[in-house]
Amino acid sequence: MKQFPQVLLPMLLLIPTIACAQKDRTETLRSGGIERTYTIHVPEGLPPGAPLVVVLHGYGGSNDPAAFGMNPTADRHGFAVCYPQGERDGRGTSCWNVGYPFQADMPIDDIQFLDDLIGHLHRRYGLSRRNVFCTGMSNGGDMCYLLASRRPELFAALGPVAGFMSVEILRRDDSPHPTPLFEIHGTEDRTTRWEGDLENRDGWGAYLPVPMAVGYWAAKNKCLRLQTDTLPAADNGRQVIAHRYTDGTGGSEVWLYETVGGTHSWHDTGVDTCEELWRFFSRYIR
Asked: Relative to the CA of 6, which of 44, 147, 180, 191 has its CA 20 to 30 Å away?
């Protein structure tokens, strides 16, 4: 039998570690009878059972990690990030099926897809099934509210950015499972309005004012206290008012960062969005 020279053995022992060290990889998963696409970022040296953050793009967006800037935060704090790609609706626009009026004939079940995806990543990469978090921008943020209502047991916490909670989600929510939630939202957002759109003037379906939606989840988590602080102004002058509902069931909290004058943006929030999201999520590592 051939044997490797002893001088090569140390090099060979390094091969599994190098082969397992992942950066960004775009892969597919079959869910609901179709091939779905996602991009995964696994920091080098990430241990088994590490947390997972799922990042959902906005309406018409893509799963390009560069659009969010979450990877450096993952590298600093030690968690994996997955960026799924939404399918196209009847308008030909990539999205998440959250029940907009014009999505009535869209057959895609994105809740099932995300459920399948989390299980798949657990098996493929050895990531935690308990420490799974989800954030999303705009339509992706709306999806966070839908998940909080329909499949809250999948996630340790949720973090919508510039998202809304529709009246339909509110009226259909009968889940007994409260979920910590953190919304970041600009007061001058003209796409997902801070004041809501109960008359459905914009065509996305009727949705609640942002403070009312967050207050609903604070009540559902049975939070007993509200602390409001004004954070130091950002470099661009944005002022953020932090509303933190605390003392919830099992120590859960619900936060709302009100970006005064903020627009419909992941980055123009007055804070480091990725760092603040992880600051919230990391409270619920189990």
From this structure: 44
Please give the domain boundaries of the chain with CATH numbers for all domains.
Answer: 22-284 (3.40.50.1820)
For residue range 102-130, list pLDDT tens digits in order: 999 999 999 999 999 999 999 999 999 99
Is 86 in a helix, a strand, or coil?
A: coil
DSSP run (H or E) holding 132: strand 132-137
What token pair was written down for 113?
């897809």
pLDDT greater than 90 at residue 13: no
Query: Strand, coil or helix: what is 133?
Result: strand
Q: Are 103 and 93 in contact (CB under 8 A)?
A: no
Q: Which of these, 138, 137, 162, 158, lies nearest to 148 by C-alpha position?
A: 158
- In terms of phi and psi (left: phi > 0; alpha: psi -120 to 50; beta: otherwise), the region of 108 is beta
- CA–chain centroid gap for 258, Å, is 18
Provide the residue type at 265 as one letter: S
